[in-house]
Write the structure tokens for this entry.
Amino acid sequence: MHFPFVCTTFALRMKERLWNANYWKVMIANFTLFFAFYLLTPLLPLYLSEQFHATKDVIGIVLSGYTVTALLSRPFSGYLVDTFNRKKVLMVCFFLFFICFAGYLAASTLLLFTIVRTLHGAPFGSVTVANSTMAIDVLPASRRNEGIGYYGLSNNLAMAIAPTVGLLLYHETHNFQLLFWLALLIAGIGLCVDASIKERKNGEGKERKSVPKLSLDRFFLINGWLLAVNMVFFGFCFGVLSNYLAIYCKEVMGRTGGTGVYFALLSVGLIASRLQGSKGLREGKLSQNGAEGVVLSALGYTLFVACPNDFGYYTSALLIGLGNGHIWPAFQNMIISVARNNQRGTANSTILVSWDVGMGLGVLIGGVASEYLGYVPAFWLVAAVQVSGTLLFIIKTRGFFESRRMPTPTPSRREGLLET
């Protein structure tokens, strides 16, 4: 009796292709925007120190400026992409992100550099929200968890590979201007790729006829508040690691190289965990994926500071990569799973804002702690924060998510015919 229904459902699932053309484009554009941004991240402390003779605490303040503007822009970005034409919002944000790289080339004083870096945070925060929301739109509903997991791989890979490329180029050329030009070029490529996205024909991409009433829930997903708080812990740890790894290795471990290899191993861990975790995401095991990730990352950060030798150094890279590769798709899927369809932008901005808060606190507190306490105590603080976040997730956040989780969407004939 149910045989025709089963056959129809199977046929619709076959039509719901995950790797459609638009999905490839948002993946590539996401990779380029994160690659351009993180190409410079580990080198900016060195640039500020060499070019402007800035102290460690001043470096922390300057580099944390972008986080403030990203933090302020993301809630509004979520509101805009939920209210207006998403592609138009995306293109404006991406263009502003692209053009800000030219500011680094023109900044001849520490004050000008601080202004450019701070202003750059706003379009960075906005374009990440807009692009990730566009990715959700082009994904078939029945494959959304899996698709979001793979989408996150593009920015995780960029965050892992770009610093390696940047450090290698710096060690070969010692030319910061070349790196600034390269970041500008890569961001321009991403802008062109996003411009070629074809909007869905089901009306999701069209402008909304009525603007929703302003309320707190349009800017911050209240239903996912604990997920956001928990993500702050993990953003803090990666903020310290990504910004101060090169200086830590030079001053504590006596290494002038090897940082590029560290980020390369980090990327290997990210790839492996994304591939291994895709089956769990497909089956909806989001909290299980999250638990695996936070534990692996806690082991990695602890090993990094507890064993200042080659084994601890390189093994920690793999563990942190494996952990972050589980954490990001799990948390992004979890917060989207507790949001309504018309709150996708808000959900994305909320989890990204929490990551920004953590990253900013990591850059700022990490700089101050390393200046007055030293780099070893600063990284012990990182390990303690990661362990605290792990305990919070296992004890509280998992149950919080499961109690608010909305039913998983099932494929419909209309959805199946719309996906191309």
About this structure: Residues 164 and 260 are 4 Å apart (CA to CA). Residues 1-14, 202-209, 410-420 have pLDDT under 50 and may be disordered. The radius of gyration is 21 Å. DSSP finds 15 helices and no strands in the chain.
